Amino acid sequence: MLTQAPKGTQDMLPKDAHRWQTIEDNMRSICALAGYREIRTPIFEHTELFQRGVGETTDVVQKEMYTFNDKGNRSITLKPEGTAGAVRALVEAHLYADIQPVKLYYANCPCFRYEKPQSGRLRQFHQNGVEVFGAKDASVDAEIIDLAMKLLNANGIGDLELNINSIGCPKCRSAYHEKLKGYLSPKLSCLCETCKGRFERNPLRILDCKEDAAKLTDAPAMLDNLCEECAEHFEKLKGYLDALGIRYNIDARIVRGLDYYTKTVFEIITDTPNGKLTVCGGGRYDGLVEELGGPATPGIGFGMGIERMIMVQDLRGVAPEAPALYDAFVVTMGDEARKEGLRLVNELRAADIRADIDHANRSMKAQFKYANKVGAKQVVVIAGDEMEKGVVRLRDMTAGEERELPRAEAVSAIAQAK
Q1: Which of 110, 176, 213, 414 is the most buried (most CB within 10 A)?
Q2: Are 165 and 252 in contact (CB under 8 A)?
């Protein structure tokens, strides 16, 4: 067991590091273009934050949280998602007093859920996400959807299908709940125990049940019971998406799994050889900041799992190739040549050229083999003859050509060939 990662976790190995880094770099560059700033929150929070924020009727809170008492007997939970922590930070640091909207993003955010591990779903996983506070117009809903689509496309995940819905606000949802309860009441005995527990507290969540949803396809839809404000907001969203040229489907069955959502909810789905797969989800949470002790502040965001994106890249055959480890490799023979080689490697690195030298005392032939394996484009040879003449031999590994040049010109020559 000491040499096995805990169930539901996995290592990011060096061979995959470039894929994670590319996804994170795309997140940072695309978000920066739209004025989003990075936020990082702790991996654990007080348990009450998720009970109040995520919702006690959710599967996340009821079944999936990693919760424990610390040495001070405080109930602590490893964060199962990124939004609640971002809202807590907003309230604690009074970020809502900044110029609004407050646009935030997080990259490679670790999250934890105790559930059965399966392909694309782990107990420790990592999310990229955005959160926007203080913007109530549906234009920002369209903006973050556009950002999500750009991010997925930048990472090779195409054939995207956007599904949108509105689940209303507390004003119209209370009346809808009564209508929904009237529909569900005669069916209650046939529903699972979890759904029976949700009947009084949050009947909308019953429509999201993996076990019972298929039995309830004729349930009244929230979309048909919106108040004037929510209906207008949804119409504006559709108009903004049209203006951006983003195609969408209206799916009245989208509920999302967390209680804090209001108005807009959406999911982005892609095609894979294994069928359709959700790669991003999000929506509005206009009451969450106030629920967690801040002033009334509208909010909206999305999250996308990095492990799932990497899995989809593999399924779609679009995984990016690993870059070569080095631009140049210095081959030496003898202690004095190695000293000169070390000086050259330092000069190359100072010139922003990825370079290395043999540290395993290999033969020159073995050093060339190693340089070829690590993909070095240029090999610099320094041995006794080169040391005496004050030159190096530079071999282009792609063209197979070799030339001799003064040692003082080595860095500039390699930089030009980079």
Answers
A1: 414
A2: yes
Return the CATH superfamily for domain 14-169+227-316: Bira Bifunctional Protein; Domain 2 (3.30.930.10)
* Residue ranges with strand state E in 248-350: 249-250, 262-272, 275-284, 299-305, 328-332
Reading the chain (418 residues) residue by residue, the pLDDT tens digits are 678 999 999 999 999 999 999 999 999 999 999 999 999 999 999 999 999 877 766 777 777 999 999 999 999 999 999 999 999 999 999 999 999 999 999 999 999 999 888 777 899 999 999 999 999 999 999 999 999 999 999 999 999 999 999 999 989 988 888 898 898 888 888 888 878 878 877 788 788 777 777 778 888 889 999 999 999 999 999 999 999 999 999 998 888 767 788 999 999 999 999 899 999 999 999 999 999 999 999 999 999 999 999 999 999 999 999 999 999 999 999 999 999 999 999 999 999 999 999 999 999 999 999 999 999 999 999 998 889 999 999 999 999 999 999 999 999 999 998 7
Cα dihedral sign, 231-234-238-240: positive
Please choose, from the candidates 125, 124, 82, 74, the residue with its C-alpha nearest in 3D space to the C-alpha of residue 104: 82
pTM value is 0.91
- By the 8 A CB rule, do 384 and 332 touch? no
**In this structure, which CATH number among 3.40.50.800, 3.40.50.2300, 3.50.50.60, 3.30.420.40 belongs to the domain 328-417?**
3.40.50.800
CA angle 177, 281, 134 (to 5 degrees): 80
Domain ranges of the chain: 14-169+227-316, 328-417
3-state class (DSSP) for residue 121: strand
